[in-house]
C-alpha cells in the first residue's frame, strides 16, 4: 500500500517532485501513427462547446485536489495530448488555479502547452499567455500537404503558416516545432525542405522524431518498418544525420537524441524525465513517478473517471509497488544516455555503488571501440579507455553524436544485458 504522504528512506533522492504533466486527450481526429490515449471530438468541437471536454476538466481538477503535496512549488508544468489547444482559456485557467492552490506554482515556472495548427485564434493565444503559458509546442510534423494527408493530420501547410503568424503576433518567450522523419513516401529532399522551412520560422526549439510504427495504429496495420512505402533504414538514418547537420549548423544545440534548442532554451520539463527525477502526472493515461514508484492511469475516460472516484474515496492512498532497484538503474541509464552530456559517473556510484562501473564498462567497451560511446573526464576532454580497464569514478558517460545516438538501441540492449546479470 502506497501512502503518498509517507517518505521512504531508500529513495531519499526522489522525494520532491516539482513538475506536473497534464494530459488533455481530445483531438479533432486520430492521426494514423498515433497510439496515445485520446478521445476524438470531431472537427468543430472546442472546450467551449463540448460537454465531454467540460466534464473531463472537472474530473481532472478533482484528481489534482485530492493528490497529496510531496514537494516544493511546481517549477515546470506541461499540457500534452491530444490537443490541449482545444481547451477554452477559462478551462486552462481553471486547471492552473487548481494546481496553484494545491501545490503552488513558482514565479519563474516553465508552463508548456502543445497546440495544433487550425485549433486556436489570436485571442485564444493571448488568453493562454495571460494565464501563464510561456512555452508553446506546435505540432507541425511536415511542411508538405501530401505527407500531412498520409499521416491523417487535420491541418494543411496554409494552416501551419497561419498558426505561425498568430504565434508571432502574441510573442511567447519559447516556441518549439515538432517534426517527424521516416514517413511513408517521404524523401530526403522533402525532409531537408521541412528542416529549412522550420529554420525560416526561427523557433527557439525543434523536436525531430523518427516515425515509430505501432501495431495498434492504422500505420501498424498498413506498413512494416523498412518496407515501401516507408523509407529504408539507411534512408531514415541519413535523415537523422541530415537533421543533426542542418540544425546544429544553424546554431541549435543537439542536447537530446530528438531535441534541439537555441542556447538557454532547452525544455526544462522534459529534462525532468531524462534525468529520472520525480514528477506528478494527471489525466487519462498519464504516468507519475513519485517516491520511487511509477504508476499509470487508465487509458479510457470511463475507467479514468472511476479511478479518480476510487482515489477520492481512499483519500489519495494508492496500492502501488515500489519500483525495483534494478528497474531504477535501467531507467537511469536509458534516460540519461538520451542527453548529449550523458550521465555523471559519480551519480551512478552514489545511487548504485562503485561496483556498477565495472559491469557498465565491460558491456560498453565494444561500442566504445567503434566510436558510439564516449567517456568524458572532469576536465571535459575525452578519456581513453584501454581494454580491461574500469570506468573512472568521476566524469561522464555519453553516446556520440550522431552515430552513438543512431545506434542507441543496440548500445542499450547490450548494456542492459550486462548490468542485469
Secondary structure: elements and pairs:
Layout (H helix, E strand, L loop, with lengths): L1 E2 L15 E6 L1 E2 L11 E2 L10 H16 L7 E8 L7 H14 L2 E11 L6 H10 L3 E7 L3 H7 L5 H14 L3 E8 L6 H14 L3 E6 L7 H5 L10 H17 L3 E4 L2 E3 L6 H7 L5 E3 L4 E4 L2 E4 L4 H13 L3 E2 L6 H12 L6 E2 H8 L3 H14 L3 E4 L19 E4 L3 H4 L1 H12 L2
Parallel strand pairs: 2-5, 2-12, 3-4, 5-6, 6-7, 7-8, 8-9
Antiparallel strand pairs: 1-15, 9-11, 10-11, 13-14, 16-18, 17-18
Helix pairs in contact: 1-2, 1-10, 2-3, 3-5, 6-8, 13-15
Looking at CATH, which topology of the largest domain would you report? Answer: pyruvate-formate lyase- activating enzyme
Please indicate the percent range of residues in DSSP E strands (runs of 2 or more): 15-25%
Compute the number of helices. Answer: 15
Task: Return the domain count.
Answer: 2
Low-pLDDT ranges:
1-13
Largest sheet: 9 strands, mixed
CATH architecture of the largest domain: Alpha-Beta Horseshoe
Q: Helix- and strand-based class?
A: alpha/beta
Would you identify the CATH H-level superfamily of the largest domain?
A: tm_1862 like domain
Give short descriptive properties of this protein.
nine-stranded mixed sheet; 40% helix; 15 helices; 421 residues; globular; pyruvate-formate lyase- activating enzyme; disordered N terminus; alpha/beta; three-stranded antiparallel sheet
